[in-house]
């Protein structure tokens, strides 16, 4: 161990200017520390105590570190090694103005050398010492990762669509949203925010999830992005440590209609804008706004989607109607003029042809 010494407080030194003889080395000294000269004191001084070898437990899956009888996220293995050394460092009370430096170096992924620099004052004289500790990292699955590996789940998200079968793309998109939202919850500290299992079938998918709380966020996220509804129910799954354990089922339903779907309903042709608990859209027959509670939106007929609208030439604009070429027969026909319509004749406009007429979009 290297020992350095320097005189710090010049004024203090001057005050004690009555020179003394050091009883250890016999040299004359201006300043004494605990009755001997600073050099002799420094030779005996132990600024700190630290074991030669320390052990730490780190989860290889998630990087959590076992600390104070629980698993915590404490950063990189470097940081875990430095923290382990710091926790086991003992500095006597008589040392004042202590500064500690920790420098971890990986010897292998499991063994770290942590170099320790300590500076501190005794009776106004600053001493510096350094040392080294070996931190051995044991890789051990944390409680959460063990649960995950054991197929633990608190809830099931039943992903379906209302009155129809969702497309494969929709299901894939929703499963991506589940992953995205779970990752956010995991980063926010919900260590059970993981997907245990996903089973896809014709009607949709069942997603088994570690955290019911995260499941709630996931459903909210899907509804925000794609609309739809969710209903929660609980079932008793058993007993654990004398407590009842419940599982949550999230019955998630994607909306029956997508944005842009054109639907025939009660002698109206509706272009859907949003389809959640409430359906909103535009009645293409008179350009009026349409809204209704989804439970009353029944006996509907899907006519298509505005994504399939055809372009055609606008022939002329009259007071109440517009003349266009029928996109299929190319005959000139007059159709309803949409509200706020301000296109000029000769350009191409988008129209949607149905059994109930042709509508300009
Ligand atoms: Zn001495
Ligand atoms: Zn873990």
Task: Tell me what the structure shows.
Helices cover 18% and strands 45% of the residues. The chain is an alpha+beta fold. The protein has 4 domains: 137 residues, no CATH class; 104 residues, no CATH class; 40 residues, no CATH class; 53 residues, OB fold (Dihydrolipoamide Acetyltransferase, E2P) (Beta Barrel), CATH 2.40.50. β23 and β24 form a beta hairpin. The N and C termini lie far apart (84 Å). 26% of the residues are buried.
Percent of residues in beta strands = over 45%
Mean pLDDT: 88
Q: What is the C-alpha radius of gyration, as a whole number of Å?
A: 38 Å
How many structurally independent domains?
A: 4
What is the H/E order? EHEEHEEEHEEEHEHEEHEEEEEEEEEEEE
* Overall outline: elongated
The hetero compounds bound to this protein are: zinc ion
- Number of distinct beta strands: 24
